[in-house]
Design a protein that fits this description.
The complex is a heterodimer of chains A (720) and B (204).
Chain A (H helix, E strand, L loop, with lengths): L1 H27 L2 E10 L10 E3 L4 E3 L5 E8 L1 E8 L8 E6 L3 E7 L9 E2 L7 E2 L7 E5 H6 L5 H8 L3 E3 L8 E3 L2 E2 L3 E5 L2 E2 L19 E8 L3 H4 L6 E7 L6 E10 L3 E11 L3 E12 L13 E16 L2 E15 L8 E17 L5 E18 L5 E20 L4 E16 L8 E19 L2 E12 L3 E14 L2 E12 L3 H5 L1 E4 L3 E4 L7 E14 L2 E22 L5 E24 L3 E14 L12 E13 L2 E12 L3 E7 L5 E7 L3 E14 L2 E10 L15 E10 L1
Parallel strand pairs in A: 1-7, 14-17, 32-35
Antiparallel strand pairs in A: 1-4, 2-3, 2-5, 5-6, 8-9, 10-16, 11-12, 12-13, 14-15, 16-17, 18-19, 18-43, 19-20, 20-21, 21-22, 22-23, 23-24, 24-25, 25-26, 26-27, 27-28, 28-29, 29-30, 30-33, 31-32, 33-34, 34-35, 35-36, 36-37, 37-38, 38-41, 39-40, 41-42, 42-43
Chain B lengths: L1 H17 L13 E6 L5 E6 L4 E7 L2 H8 L6 E4 L2 E4 L12 E4 L22 E6 L5 E6 L6 E2 L13 E2 L4 E4 L6 E10 L5 E11 L1
Antiparallel strand pairs in B: 1-13, 2-3, 2-4, 4-5, 6-11, 7-8, 9-10, 11-12, 12-13
Classes of the chains: A mainly beta (720), B mainly beta (204).
Chain lengths: 720, 204
């Protein structure tokens, strides 16, 4: 009996002790959750992927900017945000005594230094680390500038662009070089060129689908092959970011110009897809009178992107693109037909990353095809095929990270080019084709912490002109906030099928004959640049010298019947030398000032004259004011483009009816625009209003095809 | 009452026919539509308005030009889109051909007589400079089958855009008659150039 009583007392004390221990333990270690949001300071937009940490624990924000750190012991906690270095780190001190909610507002340094770029090295690199000087045009900048076409977004950011648009395309020139000397790519795949001067209709790229544009000046044939002589322009298209996203745009501009577009995207764990469709049309202008003229047109287009990632290291992609462009004659015209063109592209690629993450292999195939038709209006709108052009590119690329200092990209590529024409390659419908196979490699070696070297070469075997070997080397050196880059590289331009095999009489006015013995044009490009970044300022200065040899030119021969015949030969050379200056400055956090200036002396050595349509001095400037009205953001931009007077051919008819050509000088080209963008964010919906007045000072000149001052209103809807 | 009923359909018919541009029934019935195959780059097709037919062809060379300049049986000639009238530099026997051009807003049906003080432009030796600097000299009229739309710098809009042709008045070689002419076609239905069609009708 006594023992039982003692046991009971002991149990009671033991339990009491336990209880006391439990209470004291609890009192020492209380745990709470810290959760909240991280937002961008300018637009109150959620920032994804920001790491919020207590020092010992942390978590990343999701696509809504939301984070939660569980079971944080109570007490004095210092929270820090870790994100791209372009965002300043924020520290918050809290006394944790219950579940707490925190909001971080992070200001961005808008120089986009942490933006990933790919064109310079065919691998992903931060803009601040890439050894090749790259200009990046971001989609947000395109939106704030009110650019409604891909061409306009290029003109806003690249000085010296001259366009002579007609129903057949933009006929774009940069530094006096036409589209044959510029490599245009979408997501790293070359676009098929359409006309003899390599014209590419950039309207096939929906400007709303652009994630960013990367521009590299000078020779890049080591990585990309033919045409990368003057510049490389790589348009990177959008990918879905949210689980489900959708959007629609509608824009109206003067001359009954309407641009409409819809898009939708899904991003699931293993599969993501994005699809978009657009319709653009305009009445054109200048139907009456003798001023600038552009035909009425109707365009339709669509894009689809599919990505499948069954495991982390493997991805499979499919892309498809379609574009239709139809231009019409003026009312009452005597033309019985009008042009209609289709372009379609189909591509697929597979990527694999090795288990040690050192090898990143990609196998891709891309087919781009262009169809040129005429619509016979008197035959029930029957469509007659005139020409087609195909470009099929197959490639195997591996990027190998040997160690922290050395990365090598290498690959094999096969390209097939084919043209079909009913009368320009011979009296009867003819198909001509060219093939080339290539092996290329480029190594990126970090010699020292602040010294980087890139060396690469491409070996091309072309069925027509045989061999081309294009090496390049460049060095980047960083010191005291400055980045110095210098390099020398070679490039080539393969003669086009048209230059090789043309055989037709043009409108009964003259004959054109191709030359199957043409050699490739060669370019030798050397440049030196300095880039300086500090706080709100980002500036770069580069000087270049581009020697293009074996340049293919057309020349005339009067035959025995007195008729004019045109031939091609590798006869001339051109030397382009110049200086490019680029500046960006942020004032008072709200005002972004950007400017570009370019001086280019482009001389045709055979004539001693400037390459036609080269402008010696050109520049772009934009001032964007990002601010808020009652905590609601807006942006107001004034932007201008200037070109010094250029020489152009004018056809003059005197009283006697005689027609003569005379070289005239245009006025100084100066076009300004004002753009106001006002987004409204309501939970997951964004509605954005754009108001724009283009060419506000109504600049007009005989050499410039533009309708004068235009007004635009646009509405963009997005759901995320 | 009967007269009114009888007149009514005639009035209605003429009202409807006036609304169409090229309806040949609207005129006195003498409008002629002519087709000329002018697709050869070197051949002139010589046409007589009074005979309403092609009277012959000649090549663009000094010999043929000279032999046709001595003839009075043709009023105008067509080679591709170029026109030659039997006047000025195209004639060596002082033929009185020539052409008057109306403003492009004037319609074919609205022209019934030669305007007062109309000046008829004679042919000249016209020099056309090519882009390469060479010059082609041709004896021809300054009028053409098609009017090309030009850019502000004088170059042609490409691809070529043929504006609505104006109404012309051609004077015959003997200088006595006048015909209104409007070119209606330069390309056939398959878009092949050089297949010319025009309406012509004698006027006072």
């Amino acid at each position: 009996m006594m023992i039982k009583k003692t046991m009971k007392i002991k149990n009671y004390y033991f339990l009491l002790l336990l209880l006391l221990c439990a209470v004291s333990l609890n009192a020492q270690n209380k745990f709470y959750n810290i959760s909240g949001f991280v937002l961008d300071s300018l637009r109150n937009e959620p920032l994804m992927g920001v790491y919020v940490t207590t020092g010992k624990q942390g978590s990343q924000t999701d696509n809504k900017g939301y984070f939660i750190i569980n079971n944080v012991p109570q007490g004095n906690i210092i929270l820090k945000t870790v994100y791209y270095s372009s965002y300043n780190m924020i520290t918050k001190s809290i006394l944790l005594s219950n579940d707490t909610s925190v909001v971080f507002i992070m200001p961005e340094n808008p120089h986009h230094l942490e933006e990933i770029v790919v064109t310079g090295t065919r691998t992903e690199k931060r803009l601040s680390d890439t050894p090749i000087l790259t200009t990046v045009i971001k989609s947000k900048e395109i939106q704030k500038s009110g650019a409604i076409s891909t061409l306009e977004s290029l003109q806003d950011n690249i000085p010296g662009i001259v366009v002579s648009p007609n129903a057949m395309g933009n006929n774009m020139l940069i530094k006096g070089l036409n589209s044959r000397y510029i490599l245009f790519m979408i997501d790293g795949e070359r676009l098929v060129s359409e006309g003899a001067s390599g014209n590419i209709n950039l309207d096939q790229i929906d400007v709303n689908n652009i994630k960013r544009i990367e521009v590299i000046n000078g020779a890049a044939s080591a990585l990309y092959g033919s045409n990368a002589v003057g510049a490389v322009i790589n348009i990177i298209t959008k990918e879905p970011i949210d689980k489900f996203e959708a959007g629609a745009n509608i824009i109206e501009e003067s001359n009954n110009t309407w641009n409409t577009k819809i898009d939708a995207g899904i991003k699931l764990k293993k599969i993501s897809t994005r699809i978009s469709a657009f319709r653009n049309s305009s009445d054109g202008f200048g139907e009456d009178g003798t001023g600038a003229y552009a035909a009425r047109y109707e365009d339709y287009g669509g894009n689809v992107k599919l990505n499948y990632k069954p495991i982390e290291r493997f991805n499979f992609n499919v892309i498809g693109r379609y574009f239709l462009h139809e231009t019409f004659n003026v009312d009452g015209s005597m033309n019985v037909s009008h042009p209609l063109t289709h372009t379609f592209a189909l591509g697929t690629n597979i990527g694999y990353i090795s288990s040690d993450k050192r090898n990143n292999i990609r196998l891709s195939m891309n087919w781009d095809k262009y169809f040129d038709y005429i619509v016979l209006e008197k035959k029930n709108n029957e469509e007659h095929k005139q020409n087609t052009a195909d470009y099929i590119s197959s490639r195997l690329v591996n990027s190998f990270k040997a160690n922290e200092k050395l990365e090598i990209v290498g690959g094999l590529e096969h390209n097939h080019e084919e043209n079909y024409a009913i009368k320009t390659l011979g009296i009867n419908p003819t198909t001509k084709a060219l093939d080339d196979i290539n092996a290329f490699a480029q190594a990126d070696y970090k010699i020292l912490n602040n010294l980087d070297m890139v060396a690469g070469a491409r070996y091309t075997y072309n069925t027509q002109f045989n061999f081309a070997f294009t090496p390049k080397v460049s060095i980047m050196y960083e010191i005291g906030g400055f980045k110095f880059r210098t390099g020398i590289g070679t490039a080539f331009r393969a003669p086009s099928i048209k230059e090789l095999y043309y055989d037709f009489d043009h409108q009964g006015m003259f004959w054109i004959y191709g030359n199957p013995d043409l050699k490739a044009e060669k370019g030798l490009y050397s440049s030196i640049s300095a880039e300086y970044i500090k706080d709100n300022f980002n500036g770069s200065l580069s000087a270049y010298y581009n020697n293009i040899d074996n340049k293919i030119t057309q020349y005339d021969v009067i035959n025995s019947e007195g008729a004019n015949e045109k031939y091609y030969k590798n006869v001339s050379s051109a030397i382009l030398k110049g200086v490019d200056i680029s500046l960006s400055y942020i004032l008072f956090k709200e005002l972004v000032i950007k400017g570009n200036y370019s001086y280019c002396n482009a001389k045709d050595n055979s004539t001693g004259l400037q390459l036609s349509s080269n402008v010696k001095h050109s520049g772009t400037i934009s001032v964007t004011w990002n601010s808020n009205i009652a905590h609601s953001p807006f942006s107001l931009q004034i932007a201008g483009r200037m070109n010094s007077p250029k020489l152009y051919q004018e056809v003059l008819t005197n009283n006697e009816g005689d027609e003569t050509y005379s070289l005239s000088e245009s006025k100084t080209y100066c076009v300004w625009k004002v753009v106001f963008v006002k987004p409204f964010d309501i939970k997951k919906h964004t509605l954005e209003l754009t108001l724009k007045c283009d060419n506000i000072f109504n600049f007009k000149d005989s050499s410039f095809i533009n309708p004068g001052r235009q007004y635009l209103i646009g509405l963009r809807y997005a759901f995320k | 009452m009967k007269k009114i009923l009888f007149a009514l359909p005639i009035v209605l018919i003429s009202l409807f026919s006036c609304s169409k541009e090229y309806d040949s029934t609207q005129n006195s019935g003498e409008t002629k539509e002519t087709y000329i195959d002018a697709s050869s780059k070197t051949t002139w097709n010589y046409y007589s308005l009074s005979e309403k037919k092609i009277v012959g062809t000649g090549e663009e060379n000094d010999e043929d030009n000279e032999s046709w300049s001595k003839r009075s049986d043709w009023d105008f000639a067509v080679r591709r889109y170029l026109i030659r009238t039997n006047s000025g530099a195209s004639t060596s026997i002082s033929s009185q051909g020539g052409v008057y051009t109306f403003n492009s807003s004037i319609s074919f049906s609205s022209v019934s007589k030669v305007p007062e003080n109309a000046t008829f432009v004679a042919d000249k030796l016209i020099a056309t400079e090519e882009m390469n600097g060479t010059t082609t000299n041709t004896v021809k009229s300054e009028t053409t089958v098609i009017v090309f739309k030009k850019n502000e710098d004088g170059s042609l809009v490409m691809p070529p855009l043929y504006l609505k042709a104006p109404v012309y008045i051609f004077r015959t070689a003997n200088g006595e008659k006048y015909y209104k002419v409007q070119f209606t076609q330069y390309q056939n239905e398959n878009s092949v150039t050089g297949h010319v069609k025009f309406y012509s009708e004698e006027i006072e």
